[in-house]
Design a protein that fits this description.
Radius of gyration: 25 Å
Oligomer: single chain
Order of helices and strands: HHHH
Number of strands: 0
Largest sheet: none
Number of helices: 4
Strand content: under 5%
Structural class: mainly alpha
Distance between the termini: 68 Å
Length: 137
């Protein structure tokens, strides 16, 4: 950005957004830093759970525990929100239900992708040499 006015406007918008965001925590009794830490902290455990789930499905084992672990990773921040939150508006519940639905759909798609049968490797006709076409030694 070369326009200093645009930088001032963006800085003002960022400050306004930050103030609004942190005021929500005070208004509803939820610490945004704890909520964010739980959300970000659950990410590696979520992917480990998905890998565990894919491995179990490929090996024909029960997917129960990996599904429970994956679900808890997705839900952990929302569990905190519902326990610590006070007088949450209905749109928060609707948003969380929508996010959980999308997360479930996305996770199912990822697991299906990872557990689908691997594609056959292409045969390399060029790499195999026929002895009849080889030059005489």
């Amino acid at each position: 950005m070369t326009d200093p006015f645009a930088g001032i406007v963006l800085a003002g918008l960022w400050t306004a957004f930050k103030d609004w965001f942190f005021s929500l925590g005070a208004q509803y009794g939820v610490n945004p830093m704890i909520f964010g830490s739980i959300s970000v902290g659950a990410i590696p455990f979520f992917w480990l759970s998905v890998a565990w789930l894919v491995r179990n499905l490929r090996q024909g084992r029960s997917p129960f525990l990996p599904v429970v672990a994956t679900s808890l990773c997705v839900l952990s921040a929302y569990i905190y929100l519902f326990i610590a939150g006070e007088n949450l508006p209905i749109w928060v519940y609707l948003l969380v239900v929508g996010l959980i639905g999308y997360s479930a759909y996305s996770t199912v798609q990822t697991v299906r992708e990872k557990t689908s049968s691997p594609k056959e490797p292409a045969t390399e006709a060029e790499g195999s040499e026929d002895s009849s076409s080889a030059p005489p030694a």
